[in-house]
Amino acid sequence: MKKFFSKEVKIGVTVLVSLACLFWGIKYLKGVNLFTPVNFYYAHFEKVDGLTDSAPVTINGYQVGLVREIIYDYETGSLRVLMSLDKELKIPVNSEAVITSDMLGTAQIELCLAKNTEYYEVGADIAGKSAKGLMDNVANDLLPSVSNIMPKIDSVLTSLNKVVGNPALVKSIDRLDAITANLEQSSRQLAAVLGGKVPGIVSNVDSITSNINALTADLAEVSGSLKQMPIDSTMSNLNATTANLRLITDKVNGTDSSLGLLLNDRGLYNHIDHTVVSLDSLFMDIKKNPKRYVTIKVF
């Protein structure tokens, strides 16, 4: 019993345990848990840009496994990738394994599960393809656009050089400088003028405003006086006077009154005229023959 646990045996056991721990530690650092049950599947690719061992295998961003090994098939020239996936995961038939990469160029495999009720058996081959990376999109989409834009940019730069090199542009700039200087001088003169006359104008405006306020006060007083006057009774008296004048005028124009008859009756006018003529003849005869009308007796 003592010979079985000799020094050499203990050393050998220690070495084996150390190797096992080292192997387990390396796998653990790679993300492989030897104590977790997994299923293995294969995927074929034409190229695996940036894909390495221990790269994550995800579904909708959630990690479900790792890349365990990348094998190059010398007969077909394709690459065969061994994936270890969670034992509970079932992959439907017609699913795809797509290699994607981020901004830093780190690649991973994204499983695109098909809607199917049939599933691959463990160890089956899954169709694989490579998604376009950021640089591929730049090369395919951006670079052609830049190539199309470059002639236009060259034409714009040529036209800009012609405009900048035109002597008329220099003359225009000189004229603008002169105009700017004149405007600055005019602005100073205007400021000086306004600085000297504006206070007087303001004082005049204040005086005018005071006069307007006084006039407004007087108008308010007159308006108050007008409100206190008996305008209603005055208007009533004026209306009554107007009515009386109209009545008198109607009577004068009519034939119902003596004055109306005198003014409007032609026959009465003729009689009066005849009477006046007769009186005038009588007075003339009295002057000529007073004895005929006056008898003087002397006692």
What is this structure, in a nutshell?
This protein has helices spanning 7-29, 134-164, 167-228, 231-253, 258-264, 266-288, 290-293; strands spanning 38-45, 56-59, 62-72, 79-86, 96-101, 107-112, 125-130.
Structural summary, described in words:
The chain is α/β, with parallel strands linked by helices and 299 residues long. 58% of the residues lie in helices and 16% in strands. It has a 7-stranded mixed beta barrel. The chain is elongated, with a radius of gyration of 66 Å. The model has no long low-confidence stretch (mean pLDDT 77).
Strand arrangement, major sheet? 1-4-3-2-6-5-7
- Indicate the radius of gyration in whole angstroms: 66 Å
Distance between the termini: 226 Å
Structural class: alpha/beta
Biggest sheet: strands, sense, closure? 7 strands, mixed, barrel
Mean pLDDT value? 77
Number of helices: 7
Map the helices and strands.
Elements: H1 7-29, E1 38-45, E2 56-59, E3 62-72, E4 79-86, E5 96-101, E6 107-112, E7 125-130, H2 134-164, H3 167-228, H4 231-253, H5 258-264, H6 266-288, H7 290-293
Parallel strand pairs: 1-7, 2-6, 5-7
Antiparallel strand pairs: 1-4, 2-3, 3-4, 5-6
